[in-house]
Write a structure and sequence with these properties.
There is one protein chain. The protein is an alpha+beta fold. The protein has one domain: Alpha-Beta Plaits, CATH 3.30.70.1060. About 25% of the residues lie in helices and about 35% in strands. It contains 2 helices and 6 strands. A hairpin with a 2-residue loop joins strand 3 and strand 4. The longest helix has 17 residues.
Length: about 120
């Protein structure tokens, strides 16, 4: 099963500290080698972003920063786990190394394989 980890925080946006990168590096490397971590990226600050909304067939585009947000999305990861319980335990490892933050875990829909069987 694949899961999306959405890293959110109430702290100001920005890249992780050098210390956090050094702590996380070996964990990330081992996670990639083991096949658990499929992808992970950090997000640029919301001031460099935009929100696009469709309501009643009308588009609204709002440029960042998004000051009304109580939490900011700092990044994401896509992981391969056997169960939600395993994903939760893996998220705890991420947070234990990375520090005080929050991870929202969402199982991804997986389309059945198509083609010759």
């Amino acid at each position: 099963m694949r899961f999306l980890f959405v890293f959110t925080s109430s702290k100001p946006e920005g890249p992780p500290s050098e210390e956090a990168i050094m702590r996380m590096g070996p964990f990330i490397e081992e996670s990639i080698k083991s096949g658990k971590l499929l992808s992970a990226e950090g997000c640029m600050p919301s001031e460099k972003g935009a929100r696009v909304r469709l309501s009643k067939k009308k588009f609204t585009v709002t440029d960042g920063p998004f000051t009304e947000s109580k939490e900011v999305v700092g990044g994401f990861a896509i992981v391969e786990m056997g169960s939600m319980e395993e994903a939760v335990e893996y998220a705890k490892q991420f947070l234990d190394i990375g520090g005080d933050d929050q991870i929202e875990i969402r199982q991804l829909y997986e389309m059945p394989a198509t083609g010759p069987t």
